[in-house]
Structure formats: structure tokens, C-alpha cells
Prior knowledge:
By secondary structure, the chain is α+β, with helices and mostly antiparallel strands. Helix content is 18%, strand content 24%. It starts with 12 loop residues before the first strand and ends in an 18-residue tail after the last helix.
Amino acid sequence: MDSNKKADLYIPRKCSATHRLIHAKDHSSVQLNVGHLDENGVYTKEFTTFVLGGFIRKKGEADQSLNVLAAKRGLMKDLQKFPTSDQFDE
């Protein structure tokens, strides 16, 4: 790297759920790498990265947001398609 060039020390990230920029002082944001599995449940050394900002975590919607994002990427079944408890026969 040339000594005359300036290097960016901070590369901003975006929340995967809200698409908001995560600023440098947001210490409650997290980045999760979700591993991919083959049909036998063995890790394939591939992963998908999700970033959740402190805003979505503070609202208590991080779990639901992660489920929706994972379902959209085909990493899990869509939870909205499962029957609710009142739809089960007793």
C-alpha cells in the first residue's frame, strides 16, 4: 500500500432488517454468521452474514427479524406458514 494513499479505517454496515446504517458508536449491534448445512446436517463451510442494529434489538424484534431474514434466504422454513396453536385439534 502506498504511503500517500489514505485508508478508510471504518467501513459502515447496514442493518439487514431495517437497511439503516449502523454508526461507529452503536455498541449494541451484532453480526451473525449462520452456517449452511447439507441434507445430512453437516456444516458445508459456507455461511450467510446477518447484521442487526441496536435499534431493532432495543425494540425486541431481533429474533423475529432474524427468522424472517433466514426464511427469505431459504435457510429455514417460514414460520408464518406453520399453524397457530388455536388451529390444532385437541
